[in-house]
Amino acid sequence: MEDTTTTYTPEEIRELLNRKAQAASRHRRAVTKKLGLTDAEADALGHLARTGGMMPTQLGELLGMTSGGVTALTQRLERAGHISREPHPKDKRSSILKATPEIVERVQAEYRVLIRDTDRVTARLSEQEREVIGDYLERLVLLAERYADEALAALEATEDREPQEPVELWA
Asked: What is the pTM of this model?
């Protein structure tokens, strides 16, 4: 029998991951628009749903927003019925923001078929293949999160600097 396996180069795998990320981004934009959300609102809801809830300051850090921006965002989401606000169990000055079950269900309904089809593709893999792919993806996620954190920290460091004198770049 002929071996039909393909050996992918690191560059080909990186390109496939990039195509997957771009397709996911296009799909997310369509779902976000269909649900009447802005990108920031969708990001906030994603973080709240994934974590089960967090304080506004934590959400602001993840979104790279000022406290005023987070306040405006959370007020919009609260008015729309997409988030609830619960008293913080330990810090009475703060609250915990949570995505409502209704918005979580609406988002899940939009992704249900994609999730089912993704699970079908994954189920066709052997246990060993899933282990290798899972380990690889976990390492990529940790790497991506580290670079995102470093890029945000570098950006914040440059935003905190004193303005410099303008420099003529082209003579």
From this structure: 0.77
